[in-house]
Amino acid sequence: MRIGILTSGGDAPGMNAAISAVVKSAEHNNIEVLGIKYGFQGLVKEEVISLNCFDVDGISQRGGTILKTARCQEFIKEDGKQKAINTLKKYRINGLIVIGGNGSFEGAKELAKSGIKVVGIPGTIDNDLAYTDFCIGFDTTLNTVLECIGKIKDSDSSHEKTTIVEVMGRYCGDLALYAGLAGGGEIIATPEKKLSYDIICKRLKENVDKGKKDNVIIITEKMYDIEDLKEYIEVNLRISLRSTVLGFVQRGGNPSGFDRVLATKMGVRAVELLRDGIDRRFVGIKENKIIDINFNEINYQNISRQKEYDYLDQIL
Ligand code: F6P
Fold first, then answer.
1. pLDDT tens digits, 23-59
2. Which of 40, 105, 134, 281 could serve as 292's disulfide partner, Cβ 3.0–4.6 Å?
3. Domains 2-137+255-301 and 140-251 share a fold
4. How far separated are the first and last CA of the chain, in Å rounded?
5. Percentage of the chain exceeding pLDDT 90
6. 252 known ligand binder
7. What is the ipTM of this complex?
8. Is 80 touching ligand 1 by the criterion CB < 6 Å?
9. Name one GO molecular function term (predicted).
């Protein structure tokens, strides 16, 4: 048996650990592995390499992805998809493991329509796949966010300043929510729990009036124009603020122990599925157990964090 593996969409720390686990467990099960470089683009353009245990030696601890990644427009077109299928057939790849987020999973579903056996592993710092409690990369990025905010707080408290910090997440507020739960901020605004400019001002004023002059306001990207929000608060509360967009520092760094273990478990499960002739499954973790579900059952809308928001309300 021969399987392919690719990483697609935004890179996430822990993708390498998943690649390593797939290659090692495949070898254990006498399955050959081919790596597809640059995600779906590599399928379209036939960028295929062989992978064995020596190729993945030592990669688990490294951020990024040795297979490279891309967001591929060509694959969305019929012609590009056909080229991808031809590559899979030419290399006699019997099963494909796709590591990525929702866009990548949609790509996997497209290939399955043509009879390709696919299994997905969730790898995205956004944590925006609601069928799984955690995606590979989220924990590492959360730690990076907290480390950055910690440094901002040192300066904020010295100057008695408030900073608005914009974190990634695309349309999912998990990074901001969990950073808030970890004590990283005083005011948290996410797509799932939007706050109006006036509410943010009101909460900040309450804190300042109580004597808490250094505050961190964490916002998920794409919700507000951070400079516009800053100016609104400054004008309304007559205080000067700082603003920081954390940006791509959030995607880098060596994966945390949690992400490495998660990636390893998910990688092994993905190989087991293909080995046992089971496909069209996306692997996840639910209540600390590795699960896999039919790929038609996945839900991108993150509605499963109500309990976390309740906890947050009680500590802010
Ligand atoms: O999906 C991961 C992510 O980092 C999002 O948080 C962010 O919105 C997006 O990717 C940035 O995309 P790109 O790498 O294409 O600029």
1. 999 999 999 999 999 999 999 999 999 999 999 999 9
2. 281
3. yes
4. 54
5. 95
6. no
7. 0.97
8. no
9. AMP binding
pLDDT band at 266 (very low <50, low <70, confident <90, very high): very high
pLDDT band at 298 (very low <50, low <70, confident <90, very high): confident
Residue ID of nearest Cα to ligand 1 atom 11: 10
Contact residues for 164 (Cβ-Cβ < 8 A; gap 6+): 217, 219, 226, 229, 230, 233, 241, 242, 243, 244
Pairing status of strand 2-7 against strand 95-100: parallel
List the domain boundaries for the chain. 2-137+255-301, 140-251
Query: From 3.30.70.600, 3.30.70.141, 3.40.50.460, 3.40.50.620, which CATH number describes the 140-251 domain?
Result: 3.40.50.460
Could you count the other beta carbons within 10 Å of the beta carbon of residue 261?
16
Q: Which residues contact 206 (CB under 8 A, 6 or more apart)?
A: none
CATH number of 2-137+255-301: 3.40.50.450
> From the CA of 169, how far away is ligand 1's center (Å)?
8
Determine if ligand 1 sits within 6 Å of the CB of residue 126: yes
CB-based contacts of 25: which residues, under 8 Å, 6+ apart? 267, 268, 271, 272
pLDDT tens-digit readout, 155-199:
999 999 999 999 999 999 999 999 999 999 999 999 999 999 999
